[in-house]
Amino acid sequence: MSEPQHPQEFIVGGRYRVIRELGRGGMGSVYEAENLRTRRRVALKTMRPEVSDRDGYAQRFEREAQAAGQLHHPNVIDVIDMGDDAAYGLMFIVQEFLHGGDLAKCLKQVGALPPQAVVATLLPIMDALEAAHAHGIIHRDLKPDNIFLHETPRGVVPKLIDFGIAKFTQVHSEEELSCTATGQMIGSPNYVSPEQARGDADIDPCSDVWSLGVVFYKCLSRSIPYSAPTPSSLVAKIIYEEPIALAQLAPHLPADLVAVVQRAVVKDRAQRWPSMRAFADALRGCALWQGVDGATAQGWVVNERGETLTPLPPLTPSWAPTGPAPLEPDASPEHPSGLRSGPWGGEVSVERSSPTRASRSATVLAAVLGVIGLGVASTAAYLWPRRPRPTPTGVVIYTTPPDEIAPAPAAAPAAPPAALPVDAGAAAPAVAVVAPSPASPPPPAEPVVRVAPAPARPTRRARPAAPPQDPARRGHNGALILR
């Protein structure tokens, strides 16, 4: 029997009233439900009957409940109950109800996260995995989708969820659908370790170390060590090729943090971090985590929107990169790296120094408009009507007309002009001189040539016309004639 079409109308196991559907996958659905007796809000995970009939899937479902039920850890989702409903033919697991969203949803909204927020968010998950490994449980499906950011009144609590393909290393008689029996890879291709991709039987905690290292890649650089168009080609790259260096995908990150994460994705298990505790201790030893206490770290855990309870410190400590910020690499399907500022409370990880597509377009447009404006201004200046500029010339004034100048007799020097008799009825004398002003000295006896300065450039205001002069009172050279 399949699940009802209206889940809000049915009661599962005789005591869990379904309120709404939260999600649906290939194996079943997850509902928000309420215990009819305790009124506690719970999450009800169900498996469809046609799936539970397949070999090994019912055992896997039960193993998920057992793995999470054995780990009483604050950062592991709490399993409350398990059972089956004969009326609907469903197997179900009752878990604590979580508020918020998973880390994958957070990364889709804000992209890469600041390094302090990444470490603060994933260190609790590493503690939970350390506890699971101590109980002989290997998760084998670590990815951002299985890290839930549970929002509480006191802050965000990261929770490790979905132990559906977990492996029990201390139980050898279990019937599990895994690569131990079939030689097939199990898990998410983007995050599986090389040994898990090969289908090795001796999977150990180092496999979870690799997968969590890839999660660090994703959170810090928005990319993963391997990219391929198909799952099969991706698995082949994981097995045979070396991972892309984190320093290449995110060159702005502190060098010591990059070295710690890079060691988690070493293909040789002997060179990888030997345990989750060693991986976590190395992160706590990084410069960015010096002096950070538990209360501060709790305030730096992000929620599903990428926000933190307390602001993050700016990138000014000694470990911050010096010099200009690195250019953002071009986004591509294989290496979509780069950072973007998210809505967290503090400073962003690094400011992009490379222009965005919009800023580049604005720059090109401004340059084109500037060239056009310069051309218009040059054309207007060339075609604008110009007033003719007068050619500077000198005015030559002769004290005696040139054709009438004669050398004076040596015996009888010429009398001064002031002593010459003036007759009103007589004709004009042969020699004419310029009448001096009262303050000027008497004119010299010999003819003198004077060059007047060039007239000043006329202004825009028109000068008044000079009054007409009587030509009889001036000589042909314009000089006044004394009578």
What would your notes on this structure say?
With 483 residues, the chain is an alpha+beta fold. Among the domains are: 7-96, Phosphorylase Kinase, domain 1 (2-Layer Sandwich); 100-171 and 184-332, Transferase(Phosphotransferase) domain 1 (Transferase(Phosphotransferase), domain 1). It is 29% helix and 14% strand. The chain contains 13 helices and 13 strands. It has helices at residues 49-52, 57-70, 103-110, 115-134, 179-182, 194-198, 205-221, 231-240, 246-249, 255-264, 276-284, 294-299, 357-383, and strands spanning 11-12, 16-24, 29-35, 41-47, 79-85, 90-96, 100-102, 137-138, 147-152, 155-160, 167-168, 395-398, 449-452. It has a six-stranded antiparallel beta sheet. Helix 4 (115-134) runs antiparallel to helix 7. The relative contact order is 0.08.
Give the secondary structure arrangement, pairings included.
Layout: E1 11-12, E2 16-24, E3 29-35, E4 41-47, H1 49-52, H2 57-70, E5 79-85, E6 90-96, E7 100-102, H3 103-110, H4 115-134, E8 137-138, E9 147-152, E10 155-160, E11 167-168, H5 179-182, H6 194-198, H7 205-221, H8 231-240, H9 246-249, H10 255-264, H11 276-284, H12 294-299, H13 357-383, E12 395-398, E13 449-452
Antiparallel strand pairs: 1-2, 2-3, 3-4, 4-6, 5-6, 7-9, 8-11, 9-10, 12-13
Helix pairs in contact: 4-7, 4-11, 7-10
